[in-house]
Design a protein that fits this description.
By secondary structure, the chain is of the alpha+beta class. The chain is built from seven helices and five strands; from the N terminus they run ααααβαββααββ. α1 runs antiparallel to α2, α2 packs antiparallel against α3 and α4 packs parallel to α5.
């Protein structure tokens, strides 16, 4: 159910619910209770039933409204966050990416000018390589920042493109097994967080692992979906990372997983490859479920 259908359902329920309840009670009172019990007992039964009915009804309606409110707030935050990402992407594109392109051209000219001088030429080549690397990093970050916009094309096509982009950048073939059938059984704000976690896990493989094999599998297990990204690269001591400053990827991944009620585990040892597993809860039907806003988020 989307928000509008849920509000409509609440409206119908608040208009018709008490009326039907009172009318039904009146019928039972007139045709059954009055002929079986004393008037005093009938009054007690009526008061108690009305009280219980009113409590249950208000509890249900307030709970539903609170959930709607919480989701709307999360949605609003996600929209703001998305706008902020787009602003950063625009600034990076207009500033950093364009300056790097100019720098690259300057380095090219310098290479031409340094024909006779081997030492200068080597220096320029080192600079040129660094510019290329930085340019690729910036392009990848821009691509990642903008990927959530593509979520409206569907979660799995977006993930597939992310995997293809990774393969193109690294030259590695990913053994990718998407969810079968390709459903999105999580709550509506989870898609963007899952995408970000996968992006960071793949970025870490690209930047740090020196892997030869990468597996990416997704499987439904009862009330959860598990995403696993495994590489056979150089691995690292997970415990040491918690103390390292200026490395935010892993901790942000964990925070994102917790924000959607999920869990993230990272298993690694030097020389033993790395396995990142994300477990996402399957959303309840009814007030917890819903689709249609999955492209929003930060
Ligand atoms: N798949 C991996 N293979 C090898 N080392 C990894 C892998 N993933 C993470 N690491 C190690 O863990 C460190 C922390 O990763 P984290 O993503 O938190 O930070 P980062 O990638 O260095 O920087 P950023 O904050 O930009 O993500 C990395 O610097 C790297 O040493
Ligand atoms: Mg990282």
């Amino acid at each position: 159910m989307d928000d509008r259908a849920r509000y409509l359902w609440l409206k119908i329920l608040t208009i018709l619910g008490p009326t039907i309840f009172v009318a039904g009670g009146e019928l039972v009172r007139t045709y059954y209770l009055s002929s079986h019990f004393s008037p005093a007992l009938v009054s007690v039964i009526t008061v108690v039933t009305t009280l219980i009915g009113a409590i249950l009804f208000s509890w249900y309606v307030f709970r539903a409204m609170e959930r709607l409110e919480t989701e709307r707030r999360a949605y609003k935050e996600a929209v703001l966050s998305l706008r902020e990402r787009e602003r950063i992407a625009r600034e990076m594109h207009d500033g950093v990416a364009q300056n790097l392109a100019v720098l690259k051209m300057e380095a090219y000219k310098l290479k031409d000018l340094s024909q006779g001088n081997q030492e200068v030429r080597e220096e320029v080549e080192t600079i040129d390589k660094l510019i290329n690397q930085t340019y690729l990093e910036v392009r990848q970050t821009l691509y990642d920042l903008r990927a959530s916009r593509r979520l409206h094309e569907g979660f799995w096509p977006t993930i597939q493109r992310q995997v293809e982009e990774f393969e193109r950048q690294t030259g590695l073939a990913v053994e990718f097994s998407p969810l079968d059938p390709p459903a999105e059984p999580w709550s509506e704000l989870a898609s963007v967080q899952i995408l970000r976690i996968i992006q960071e896990a793949l970025a870490n493989v690209r930047k740090h692992a020196s892997a030869r094999r990468v597996e990416f599998s997704c499987a439904r297990q009862g009330r959860t979906v598990e995403f696993v990204i495994r590489d056979d690269g150089q691995g690292f001591a997970v415990g040491d990372m918690e103390l390292k400053a200026h490395h935010y990827g892993l901790s942000v991944m964990k925070e994102r997983a917790e924000a959607i009620g999920g869990r993230l585990s990272v298993e690694s040892q030097p020389g033993q490859g790395t396995t990142v597993a994300l477990i996402v809860p399957v959303a309840e039907r009814g007030f917890d479920s819903g689709k249609g806003k999955a492209h929003v988020g930060g």
